UniProtKB/TrEMBL annotation:
The species this protein was found in: Flavobacterium alvei
Protein name, entry field: Enoyl-[acyl-carrier-protein] reductase [NADH]
Positions of the catalytic residues: 234 (proton donor)
Catalytic activity, EC: 1.3.1.9
Domain Enoyl reductase FAD binding: 323-385
Binding site for NAD(+): 47-52, 73-74, 110-111, 138-139, 243, 272-274
Signal peptide residues on this chain, from the entry's feature table: none
Amino acid sequence: MIIEPRMRGFICVTSHPDGCAQSVKNQIEYIKSKGTIDGAKKVLVIGASTGFGLSSRITAAFGSDAATIGVFFEKPPLEGKPGSPGWYNSAAFETEANKAGLYAKSVNGDAFSNEIKRQTLDLIKADLGQVDLVIYSLASPVRLHPVTGVLHRSVLKPIGATYTNKTVDFHTGVVTDISIAPCQDDDIANTVAVMGGEDWAMWMDALKAENLLAPGVKTVAYSYIGPSLTEAVYRKGTIGRAKDHLEATAFSISDSLKSVDGEAFVSVNKALVTQASSAIPVIPLYISLLYKIMKEEGIHEGCIEQIQRLYQDRLYTGNPIPTDEKGRIRVDDWEMRDDVQEKVATLWKQATTESLPEIGDLEGYRKDFLNLFGFDFAGVDYKADTDEMVGIPSIV
Ligand code: NAD
Ligand code: NA
């Protein structure tokens, strides 16, 4: 079929298999161009099909020749209906890994469930014995709690007071003021249940209980901080409480991993265009200004550049892992540079529908957004008929 982008609200409901494959190949080429990383050899990535998790899998495989198991929740294609981008990304990743002689298998289903944990543990036991790196990179709006059976929904709201600021509809370029009402009742607890650290700890407990963690194992989950501009809706909002919980969980996991000489870390990453961040008001305007400045300064990074730097310059240098005063790894250091943030703050005041195309990187935002779904890649013939029924070679 011929597949074109089809938007519904903030999301794109189609995706392109060849474009997703191109995106994976581009990331692999980038990793190969940066040389070998003396990293982990048997890697479990939870949330491995898109965004930071996909880049983490690619960096392990093509930077360190690692065997990888990827866990994700993606939609397979149906005749005439493309699968989700993470499906096609994972198909392309496994194909390229196999070509390179690297072990790669995937588990598709709800990572919060006992069943998917069980299947993943069995696969590690059968094929790898133990893992020496576990990346935890889930981003989900809901979690069905495996013990209580409660379905928790996360919300992206300020706490305590209505927050009003500028935002942009990046599809139309229109800048408006929006107000977001504060969260209520159980919103904080629900958001913490979905995006906090409980599930990460459950994974690590289950892996440890069955002796599937190699001596010296590392585990890393991803967090975000961002500037004061977005604080009310992000770091001091409901999602920020979940990130506080995730960051605190790193310490309790580290305690539990002492017996295997292991350690847990949170890495604070840069703001990037993803399906999730596009749905948070205010963030797209921030990102479009940030991209403009970081590109001008020559310090712009996407997921693959961020994760390559995380592995090469933070996790696997052979020296102690550098962290901030709260024990977190920081690869958002370039985003948070004073000069960068001062420029964003200045441009923020000037941003209007008329000025944004000049002072912000709306084009870059839109391109990155389309790229998430496999569209707008050089080297892909979007007018050609393509096979939507692409399968993942080793899927459980
Ligand atoms: P993403 O949406 O690109 O990736 C999410 C992954 O989780 C996908 O592989 C998806 O299949 C998987 N997933 C979702 N629900 C699942 C479920 N129930 N079971 C199994 N797999 C499931 O998100 P991302 O932007 O790469 O975010 C990953 C982490 O990085 C999050 O913790 C996020 O907060 C953090 N982070 C994001 C940004 C940003 O700007 N995007 C910045 C810093 C940190
Ligand atoms: Na991810």
